[in-house]
């Protein structure tokens, strides 16, 4: 079966880790993840500048490793990202900002990608809050 | 048509649980995760509300969240992540109370 996952919370929220464990379990069970969509504060998980305390799980790093390993389509909402200072090279140049913190494997795109994923997948599962 | 409702907020901080119970369909399931598992605290008002809703085998809780909070309950079936994935497929759609 095909899953689309939307993550609304930052990497330090328990729900982001829950989304990651759900995604890992879905792939391990032989299912497909057609798209991961990071929305609202979820865009912080894609930032390369997040530094987790040494005694805590680095969930953003785990997301990055997971997306890279399985070559998943991981879309970061561009409007949510820009307002939170999560920029790729193109956007940093466009808005003349001094830093880039959204390298591969993430892709900046619009909310339409979430809509399309919801149509393509058999199940859309959203994770957010606590 | 069945919906799996997923709640992760504590029942003591808002009224998501009571709102959810009010509109839960007869084929719908309810999965408690994160601080929402506090609803299964013995003797609590949220547990009474859950028992009153008479969900039977349609009430679930994430096992790791129960363990992390030292809660055990006969009211809900404890499930792991592979079972969470399967549960989402057993229902027609998943509604997360964000």
CATH topology of chain A: Hypothetical Protein Ychn, Chain: A
Q: How many helices of chain A in DSSP terms?
A: 5
Question: Could you say how many structural domains of chain A there are in total?
Answer: 1
Q: Specify the CATH class of chain B.
A: Alpha Beta
Q: Structural class of chain A, please?
A: alpha/beta
* Oligomeric category: heterodimer
- What's the CATH H-level homologous superfamily of chain A? DsrEFH-like
The CATH architecture term of chain B is: 3-Layer(aba) Sandwich
Gyration radius over CA of chain A: 14 Å
Count of helix runs of chain B: 4
How far apart are the termini of chain B? 21 Å
Q: How many strands of chain B?
A: 5
Order of helices and strands of chain A: EHEHEHHEHE
Low-confidence stretches of chain B: none
Instruction: Describe the largest sheet of chain A.
Output: 5 strands, parallel
Q: Kindly state the mean pLDDT of chain B as a whole number?
A: 97
As for the number of domains of chain B, it is 1
Major sheet of chain B: order of its strands? Answer: 4-3-2-1-5
Described by the principal axes of the CA atoms, the overall outline of chain B is globular
Produce a short descriptive summary:
The complex is a heterodimer of chains A (130) and B (98). Chain A contains five helices and five strands.
List keywords for this structure.
heterodimer; A: 130 residues; alpha/beta; Hypothetical Protein Ychn, Chain: A; five-stranded parallel sheet; B: 98 residues
What does this structure look like?
The complex is a heterodimer of chains A (130) and B (98). By secondary structure, chain A is an alpha/beta fold. Helix content of chain A is 37%, strand content 19%. In chain A, helix 2 links the parallel strand 2 and strand 3 (74-77). The radius of gyration of chain A is 14 Å and the shape is globular. Chain B is of the alpha/beta class and 98 residues long. Chain B has a single domain (3-97), classed as DsrEFH-like (Hypothetical Protein Ychn, Chain: A). Chain B is 34% helix and 21% strand. In chain B, helix 2 (45-53) links the parallel strand 2 (29-32) and strand 3 (59-62). Chain B is globular. The chains are: A alpha/beta (130), B alpha/beta (98). Chain A binds chain B through residues 1, 3, 8, 14-15, 18, 21-22, 24-26, 28-29, 31, 122-130, and chain B through 6, 8-10, 33-35, 62, 80-82, 84-86, 88-89, 93-94, 96-98.
């Amino acid at each position: 079966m095909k899953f689309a996952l939307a993550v609304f919370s930052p990497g330090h929220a328990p729900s982001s880790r829950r989304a990651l464990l759900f995604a890992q379990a879905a792939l391990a069970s032989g299912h497909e993840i057609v798209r991961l969509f990071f929305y609202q504060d979820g865009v912080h998980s894609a930032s390369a500048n997040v530094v987790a305390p040494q005694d805590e799980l680095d969930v953003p790093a785990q997301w990055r490793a997971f997306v890279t390993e399985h070559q998943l389509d991981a879309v970061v909402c561009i409007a949510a990202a820009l307002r939170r200072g999560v920029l790729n090279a193109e956007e940093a140049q466009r808005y003349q900002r001094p830093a880039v913190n959204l390298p591969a494997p993430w892709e900046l795109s619009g909310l339409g990608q979430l809509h399309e994923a919801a149509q393509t997948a058999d199940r859309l599962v959203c994770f957010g809050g606590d | 048509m069945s919906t799996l409702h997923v709640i992760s907020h504590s029942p003591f901080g808002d009224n998501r649980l009571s709102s959810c119970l009010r509109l839960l369909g007869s084929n719908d399931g309810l999965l408690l995760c994160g601080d929402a598992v506090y609803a299964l605290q013995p003797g609590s008002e949220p547990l009474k509300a859950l028992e009153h809703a008479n969900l039977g085998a349609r009430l679930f809780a994430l096992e790791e969240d129960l363990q992390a909070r030292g809660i055990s309950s006969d009211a809900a079936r404890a499930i792991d992540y592979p079972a969470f994935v399967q549960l989402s497929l057993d229902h027609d759609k998943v509604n997360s109370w964000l």
